[in-house]
Amino acid sequence: MKDKRKSEVQSKMKLSLPKIFPRETLMMALDNVRANKFRSFLTVLGIVIGVMAAIVVASILTGMRTISTLFISRPDRALAWIGPSVYANR
Question: Within a domain: residue 63?
Answer without folding.
Answer: yes
